[in-house]
Protein 1
Amino acid sequence: MKYFFILMLLYSCSEGGGSSNNIVAPPIIDTLETVEEEGIFQALLKPVNKAIGQHLNGALTLVKENNEFIADVRLSAGPASVLHTQHLHIGSRCPDSKDDINGDGFIDGFEGAEVYKEVLIPLDDDLSSQRMGGGIYPASDEFGFYYYSKATNFQKMMDDLWEEDINLTDEYVKLRLNEKLTLKNKVVVILGIPASTLLPDTVSGYGRLTPHQALPIACGVVQKLTQVPGVIDSDSTDIPIPRGGSIGGSNGGEDDGAIFNTDSQPEGPGNYGED
């Protein structure tokens, strides 16, 4: 609307003011150009400190579609029964052995932060705000597995990222007003090991986090995908059907890969989980 009034004013001046100068109207800025292109983005998680969780694996998946933003993290074979702080950082690579500055065999919270840099999006209980997630993060089970998934209004998240940065000394960073959010080549980092884990005295924490809480265990660099990740389930099984039984489907005739002893179906969402 602001640009409409400017154009009307310029038109009035050129028509009624008698000026012979050619006046060029300012370009109309499309606010959609300030956001990341839509699509699916993924970062494969690899261990950072291989002495801890060297067999872990997992992935971060980010989806930007219309005005919705979704973040999904899956981690397996990591440290068991521990809270895992997880963030999307503005750095462009994951730390490796050469980043172990003090040579103690661990990349600690301070050494890691020198590489993956400040936090842009905390993957906590509230994606729409850097501060309102309340420090609520997922915890792994006794097997070192956890699954995290959150969605938010994309514009609400961007409005928060465009706010003035009132604390320039903390680990969070804001975008400049109307700066485009780029997800490609950002870095996701998973932190946290059990407090009972023995660490050298030289291992440092970071910010308000203790050495155990700040220790990076997994990291990945975000890339845009050209197709949906994974392999589509063929929705079939080679397992023989029990005599008198049925296989899946609302009428027992379609194979959904699940075997039931009767024609009745289990209550709830089954394999698809709760929202």
Protein 2
Amino acid sequence: MTTLWAALLWVALLPPGGSPEIVIRGRIVDSAGAVIAGARVRVLDEASRQTIDSTASDAEGKFSFGGLDAGNYLLAVSAPGFAEKLVRVDQPQSGVTQVPTIRLEVLDCDAPHVNCDIFTTGDYSDPYPVILTRDLTVSASQAIDLKKGELVTPDSGTADIRLDAAAGGLFVVPVNGAAFTTAGEKRSCGKTRNKDPLRIDGLGSASEFVVLTVHKQCSRLFLTSEIPPGADQAGFHIVTRSR
């Protein structure tokens, strides 16, 4: 096929508006590979965090979005009992873009509204016992002491994170040597350390992040409601464990 004929064919395939139509498809499973039907999937504009469309996965765990313009997108994927996962889709090509299989992790006993009645025989001890559980609403420019679960001034030496509204987004910023990490074994802190601001607008109520605090304790924070674009506050369910 000549270059001219290839160009003419590409133009002929364009929709009436002149821009190639984007289709994003994927499949959702749990950590064991079992299909998750009825998972909520939102497609967000990466820059604005605005939800463009939403759908639910079918009986085979599959989902599809069509009629999208060229651009960068985020997929926010969640299901009851599972933590929300954010997946980036960079510049999908015209036609169908198949994203890799999305695996969701089960929420455990630290998450809000999770029933974790444990029946055991013999002695039971938690290697990293909870020292604080609290729900807290935080506004932009406010900071949190995660050991006490209290709002403090951003310049306080006991502050672990602060909330910033900047560049059209809402960010959680670690301070005083605190850092984002991962949930390790038995809900301890993992080994990774990241001090970069975390953007949370657009995230849903099943989203979670983990902080290694100023006092070297492990705090898990769960969003208690979806954060809309342009928001200047966020609600957190905070669980801090000893290390």
Protein 3
Amino acid sequence: MKPINVGLIGIGTVGGGTWTVLKRNAEEITRRAGRPIRITAVADKNVELAKQVTGGAARVTDDAFSLVTDPEIDIIVELIGGYGVAKELVMQAIANGKHVVTANKALLAVHGTEIFNAAQEKGVMVAFEAAVAGGIPVIKALREGLSANRIEWAAGIINGTTNFILSEMRDKGLSFDEVLKEAQRLGYAEADPTFDIEGVDAAHKATLIASIAYGIPVQFDKAYIEGITKLEASDIKYAEQLGYRIKLLGIAKRREKGIELRVHPTLIPAKRLIANVEGAMNAVVVKGDAVGTTLYYGKGAGAEPTASAVIADLVDVTRLATADPEHRVPHLAFQPDAMSNLPILPMSEVETGYYLRLRVEDKPGVLADVTRILADQAISIDAMLQREPEEGEGETDIIILTHVCKESSADAAIVKIEGLAAQKGKVKRIRLEELQ
């Protein structure tokens, strides 16, 4: 059987891993795909590195555009990331009738609708398993394994850097800044970690999960994004005392009037499996109406774990390359003419529980004032923790866990609590999900 020829753009960490795994497991992969898959050309700015990795077994160039126009190449693997030249390369590859495999979640979250439409018109595939949760096959699970289900919600730890930081803060009682420096030293965090710690990377991935789960266009601009930079060690400690762990979650949830799409620090009951995902690991929980709750866990980054997902896409594309385009698995799980127009709900319409930390004067009547404000907004209290003030200390922390209520009600209550004379500073608010 004639081999399928692949052009690899970018042979850094993931590209190098893809080359290595494809070469090491060539026989196994050929048996699965039905024909050999071989990387015949590699484009990278660092030509010497590319030559070193490939050992002369592929054509090497610094001109990525020469790959997307090469008539001998069947599939383009884009692993350079970003929105700029990567988009040009992907769109030109599609225009030239080439299938595309990418790990570029930022590109797809922002420009996915345009890219998928172009691929649909041209009858080619764009595969992106590696764009969400690295080596964990969560895209395939949502698109195919759970296709009988009406997806109720999905919630994931989908950024390893932030999960490592939160795990270290909990285990060692250190501040965010201290752990971030350690994460950078160990290579878990970039020199500029903004995309990770501010929740942007997780939001790119959550956007793709929501689109596949509900058959809606990718709408990254509608996602609510809140990072972990303002979390304090005291909040992690109080959460632990109440039986919860704090994780940065990407959440997509179906509601009657639309879809919730949000990324933020979240209290999760410590007894949930996902609450015990530590270090740089990833995990995604998906609730389907027929199957119930399913959990996908594994390495969300790294050379070979991500390469595993890239090559799985190459195998899928190879299997289906000659199939009728009308009968392939759709990019976003639902047939293109059956996409939903369900809106992404504004954050004011989101319904969840809340952790509220108040710093108040230690005097009678304060708690009564707070509970009255909550009651006025129809917010009921689930649990409460009051720290005993140390001798001579005139202030104390009160921690309140609420039952589920609307974000707009919580906002109104917080404004009124912050207006109390006894309240010192801002109320600390962290959202809470039971994930039942």
Protein 4
Amino acid sequence: MRKPLNSPFNPGSDSVPEIWAGRTAQLSDWRDVVRPRRLAGLPERGRTILGEAGLGKSALVRRIAKEASAAGDWVTPQLRVPSGADPLKLLAAAMLALAEAAGLASAREQRIRAALDRVQAVAVSGISLTIRQADGPEPYAALTELLVEIGRAAIGRGNLVLIHIDEIQNIQDAAVLSQLLIALGDALAHEVEVEAPGGVLVSRTLPIAVYLTGLPEFLEMAGARSGATFARRFQTVTLVAIDDDELTAALQPFVIEGWAVPDDAGGMTRVRMEPGAVEAIAELCCGEPFLFQLAGERAWYADIDDVITRPQVLAGWETARSEAASHVERILQRLPAKELDFVEAMAALPVSDRTLTQIAKRMGSDKASDLGPTSQRLDTARGIVERGRPYTFRHRAVEAYLTSDWPDVPKG
């Protein structure tokens, strides 16, 4: 009945999970704002989706990309940037593939051939070799030129070009990051003249959408190195935990009609969940998409019958405890010392005493104002705390780890 081969839960693979929870605001933004505006030729900024590990950044944009592909749009693969890699080289290779799909490779226009040749050099040699060995425009300018040509072709087809660059925080070279952001930003802002009904020429932007995903520190990197240009051309969202109501809603099909799986007789049967099992999964995962998938997977593996019970969820979680703890520990270990001290001091205080003044005292400082920038980064950039009266935790798994026995299985 329940087997690893038919589990609908899939933690930590960046794939689009079958059991999808939350992120309705970001999905609505794509469906109702980004795609229709870019298709209509209206200006719309790129999107930067940031957040701590496990919040589902890559899976979110992969779902958007899946929807775009189903609509006939031209979509790059997930361009994951390894540490030390040349992102312009990765983008150049992806743009050449899109140019092939657009039919530009067979075009005879000299400007298109020149753009393709120049971007081919970037794709083969990378930014450093290209700058040293070839005359002509900078690599970012060549990429922009090809993006424009692909965008023109997309106008003719009536579809969109979607570009997704992941692990954007791994671009440590300021010059390379600047070139990448300028190339993408210039393509987003570029306008062309098209003929409207009646023969009137009108200006429109290209049907190109860009999504960047990565860890929260990218925001400071981009702001420091690109300043107002980045803020003007990209809208940034920092993901936080998913509400329990959204997690419960995602599992409701299990409760109402059950999840269809093959049986052992060549037909189909359904696996159901008791309401107590749904409640247990929501409690244990603390709003984290990765932990939600992990808790669901281990509950699925806990038995083979057709009903998932609360005891099975708890039994499955026992096998996931160390992985859940390591997940939160990695988040805390990445924090700079002062930010880590802040969240630990905040967690040690009673909920009603979590004010900036009391946190400062707990850290051995008499000046709460000295912690203003630290609290701001933890709030707006990292999404770990929320400033207020009192301060609260936005990252519920961090709070649970620091203030309770979680991820131990609750008794009773």
